[in-house]
Write a structure and sequence with these properties.
By secondary structure, the protein is mainly β. The protein is built from no helices and four strands.
Length: 66
Amino acid sequence: MSKSQSSLTELTEYCEQCGARTPHNVSIELKTESKKETNRAFSREPYRVTQCHACGDERAQRMNDA
């Protein structure tokens, strides 16, 4: 009997919008925080981005603030 496995980017987490634990896509993205053109390349920070499969709610948390 074969079981389907979730991908490495899919986790079950609590969703504030749904009020329940639901499957989420999870990824890490580099986001540029500086609005200035000079030094923009040096202002990138990693963010953990989650998106709920049930309601589509997307949230991003800065990794250095975790």
